[in-house]
Task: inverse folding
């Protein structure tokens, strides 16, 4: 809501849990009970100092932070963030991030990357991204899509040297993998081995998706473990966003299975 303040935007999201969203006849003073929680969320996304600004006044990267704060305030079990920025709120079970740094300058990209790292602690994330520097510093596991099919999977150190991946991205297996902000630097990767006792959180099996008569996804298999950061990597048109939309049931025609197992 561009003409409401940053605080008011977050407070509206928090209002959903109170059951008063449609109580238009009541005074807005009943929302004051949500102020402390709203400020906590804004502090987590580094927006506390901007709480009284209208949303339209925020810089581009800060607007993405506000979008994520308001979405997380609704405590979703499964969340799609389309070009978001940040961060922690009310403990969503699974976050889906669709190109979280797209369109941002270097400073905003760095801020978003650090905030996503913060979010990933004890959380499960499936992220769509093509910025190699971001992927290298965040992802535990990479799944690379090309023309609707998974062609490689594993930690970034392995995937970035895969000849099929290099061919798909660079046109030749002889070049280094390059991202939106330059050549991927080996030392930036922070991959960690999945926890030995980690449990499956999301399993996608033989997923096919269609737009009209066009066959977009061709038998995609993907597993995301609890507490893991998994990135879908691929060039434009590879099927990354279609995969996310298919998980959420937003593609009209699809076959296969999508199973989400909430941890006890």
Result:
């Amino acid at each position: 809501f561009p003409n409401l303040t940053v605080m008011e935007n977050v407070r509206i999201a928090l209002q959903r849990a109170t059951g008063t969203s449609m109580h238009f006849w009541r005074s807005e003073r009943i929302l004051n009970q949500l102020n402390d929680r709203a400020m906590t969320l804004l502090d987590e996304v580094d927006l506390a100092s901007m709480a009284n600004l209208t949303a339209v006044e925020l810089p581009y990267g800060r607007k993405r932070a506000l979008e994520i704060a308001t979405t997380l305030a609704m405590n979703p079990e499964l969340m799609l963030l389309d070009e978001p920025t940040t961060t922690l709120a009310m403990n969503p079970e699974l976050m889906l991030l669709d190109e979280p740094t797209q369109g941002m300058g270097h400073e905003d990209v760095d801020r978003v990357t650090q905030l996503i790292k913060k979010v990933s602690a004890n959380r499960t994330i499936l992220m769509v991204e093509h910025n190699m520097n971001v992927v290298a510093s965040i992802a535990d596991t990479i799944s690379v899509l090309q023309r609707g099919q998974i062609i490689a999977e594993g930690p970034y150190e392995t995937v970035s040297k895969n000849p099929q991946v290099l061919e798909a991205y660079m046109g030749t297996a002889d070049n280094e993998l390059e991202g939106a902000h330059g050549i991927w630097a080996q030392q930036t990767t922070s991959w960690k081995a999945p926890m030995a006792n980690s449990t499956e959180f999301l399993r996608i099996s033989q997923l096919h998706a269609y737009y009209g008569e066009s066959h977009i996804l061709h038998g995609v298999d993907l597993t995301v473990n609890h507490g893991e950061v998994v990135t879908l990597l691929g060039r434009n048109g590879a099927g990354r966003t279609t995969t996310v939309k298919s998980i959420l049931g937003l593609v009209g025609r699809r076959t296969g299975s999508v199973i989400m197992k909430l941890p006890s």
Summary: The first strand starts at residue 78 and ends at 82. The chain is about 30% helix and 25% strand. The CA atoms of residues 181 and 263 lie 37 Å apart. Confidence is low (pLDDT under 50) at residues 82-91, 180-196.
